[in-house]
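User: Can you help me understand a structure? I only have the sequence.
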Amino acid sequence: MRRSRRNTLVGGIVALGLVLAGTGYAYWTDSLNVTTKATTGDFGVKFVDLGLYGQYGDETMKGAGWSIVDGIGDTGYVGDQFFLRGSSDYNIIAKPGSIDAYKERAKGHNNVDFNAELVDKEKLTKDIGTAYKKASTDASGKILLTIDNMYPGYAQVFRSDIVNVGDIAAKLGNIKFETKTLDGKEKGNLEDMIGVAVYLHREQSIPQFKDNEPTFKLAKAIANNGADDSRFFRVGGVDFVRLSALNDADVKAALENNVIMCAPATDQRLDIFVGVAMDPDAEGKFTTGTAADRKDNDDKLSQGKGVQLSMDLLWDQFNVGKDAGTTNILEKQNKDAASKPSTKPDAGSSKGSSAGSSAGSSAGSSAGSSAGSSTGSSTGSSAGSSTGSSKGSSAGSSKGSSAGSSAGSSTGSSFGSSFGSSRRRGR
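Assistant: Let's start by predicting it. Here is the structure, written out as tokens:
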């Protein structure tokens, strides 16, 4: 009996040993997962709310400015509220009956005819603020402006809004101008005699951050880049750039010093004002001048001619040019790793080998991991935060305040005295 007992006890000890041997190699495990999902946004800007100037009482000078300069009557111009339409219908270019009223006014003085239309128009793809609804607002990437039977001293202004229908802020990169013959008519000297004025002004119906930002004026921007005065003429207090003077390089240089952006914010838009005029030319440089002071120039060069001006506003996404060339922590790490390959063994490995095999492997790997991760994290975050914030705040605030205030004071006030002040609320 004793022998049998002893055999049972030994067998139990062996069985327990086997169980312990099995559990001795079981460790806890865990895993981390990173899942990346990415979609792309839309990019695009559209013209909406096209009309004759002005359409809103708060973008005019309350009748003290002009919409058309024609030389008729005591004032010689049509007041800036003549075509006032307001927000009754964003798809018509003027108050009902006002264009007929102008033609009645001009009867016996001129046969000018004019029109503004969106080409290949479609409905907006999304609502813009409280005003422009996708179900009811016409939009297009093209505008056609037509003025027939102009004469020296005649000027007219058109207006439109530019809205961002995408998800990414757009920045104006260039304005391309191109002149062509019109309907088989000769251009004569019209490229010298006809000029264009372009104003761009950013506004929000409910401003939260910025308001009264500087207005971009094409003539002023080109002149500031060293253009001579002969390239411009003035009608109604507004400077026009001759079509012959619309040099691509000058326009691009002017835009480099004027950041014009259109945000995808729901209430933001750009006001664009396009003025077209014919040089009064009283001194007779392009025509025979006045009856009292006739020149030898040939009036046939400017009569019965035609010219077509195409103006393309070319937009880039806001971050154009800001790529991996800009210093950041990842680029710095990669650059350092490439230029200075490591010749030293890991802290973890060397520690492990000197300490012996079993102790070394455990100490080495834990020391190596902790040293590596703590160094990497602290370096990455401190370098990233300090570099990013100090650079961003100093560059942003100093540049923004100086450029914004100086440009704003010089151009903002003059905008009010020519086309008026574009401040519309709650449309």
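Now, to help you interpret it: Residues 357-418 form the longest helix (62 residues). Confidence is low (pLDDT under 50) at residues 1-5, 347-418, 420-426. Let me know which part you'd like to focus on.
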